[in-house]
Specification:
The relative contact order is 0.14. The protein is of the alpha/beta class and 284 residues long. The protein is globular, with a radius of gyration of 18 Å. It has a 7-stranded mixed β-sheet, sandwiched between helices. Helices cover 40% and strands 18% of the residues. The chain contains 11 helices and 7 strands.
Length: 284
């Protein structure tokens, strides 16, 4: 991959989206349409409560939809037409649906997760995702050097065996291939600390730029860029639906504040999420 202009940070996806011709409104409408088809395919009451909460949090509210699309903007910076892409831990494959809409039929899109492949059929059908159910704590059923890009959005912190999982991702990437990482929970995040103080659900594993970089390097990657994202909360996990809905109506204000605060050091040290661009080095 060349021409990205990365030195210490990639170009800001949130500000560059319109310049690239990205239509977030149309993408949000696509996701909502697929979500409606999903409800008909697998009624919500057949999913467990955790899965229902996850889907509602990510697909139903304007603020969380905006957050999701911003993270996809970040991840998609590493993708070029014609690439073979793995959405690692794809779940419903929302990211792949947006990749498909942006890049068209030229992409080869693959996905893997622990769920049954038919669970999210409307999303997988739209993205034409070639899905594989994971049956091992770390091993991936793909050949060496198979992918140009691997994207992971809120996945790394949940895997059972993170050391060997990173080694596997290095193996399945071609030399020079990119590993794009979004939403790794920050050890210094004030929102994580607040969630714990209030007794709400929080992440079991937290990371710093240094600790995650060292893990990536140990697995054989070189880290090209890092970033810290989201200081003003965008999800309000653990709070009631009425408060979440009221807060979501302020999504324009919340998003503007985030765009400003993410650029201010040292305030951004307590951001919720860490972002990484890593590469499998070119072989000598």
């Amino acid at each position: 991959m060349t021409g990205l202009g990365w030195k210490t940070k990639p170009r800001r996806a949130a500000s560059g989206a319109q310049g690239l011709g990205i239509d977030h409104h149309a993408e949000a409408e696509l996701i909502r349409r697929l979500w409606a088809e999903q409800r008909a395919h697998v009624p919500l009451e057949t999913l467990d409560s955790e899965e229902q909460g996850y889907l509602d949090a990510h697909l139903a509210m304007p603020l969380t939809m905006r957050r999701r699309l911003a993270m996809i903007d970040w991840l998609a910076q590493g993708i070029r037409p014609g690439d073979r892409v793995l959405e690692w831990g794809c779940r419903h494959g929302v990211d792949s649906c947006v990749y498909r809409r942006r890049f068209g039929p030229s992409l080869e899109l693959y996905g893997c997760d622990y769920i049954e492949g038919d669970t999210y059929r409307p999303f997988h059908d739209y993205s034409r995702l070639q899905y594989v159910k994971v049956t091992h704590s770390s091993r991936l059923e793909y050949p060496d050097g198979f992918f140009d890009v691997v994207t992971g959005n809120g996945v790394w912190e949940h895997v059972l065996d993170e050391t060997n999982s990173l080694l596997e991702l290095h193996r399945v990437l071609r030399p020079g291939g990119l590993f794009m990482i979004a939403c790794l929970p920050n050890r210094y995040s004030y929102t994580e600390a607040l969630q714990r103080r209030l007794g709400h659900e929080a992440h079991d594993r937290l990371y710093t730029i240094h600790s995650a970089t060292e893990m990536l390097r140990t697995a054989g990657f070189e880290v090209l860029a890092t970033d810290r994202r989201l200081l003003v909360p965008t999800m309000l996990n653990g709070f009631g639906p009425g408060l979440r809905d009221l807060y979501s109506r302020l999504h324009g204000v919340v998003w503007t504040l985030n765009s400003v605060l993410e650029r201010i050091w040292p305030i951004n040290l307590i951001a919720s999420n860490l972002m990484f661009v890593a590469r499998r080095p070119l072989e000598a």
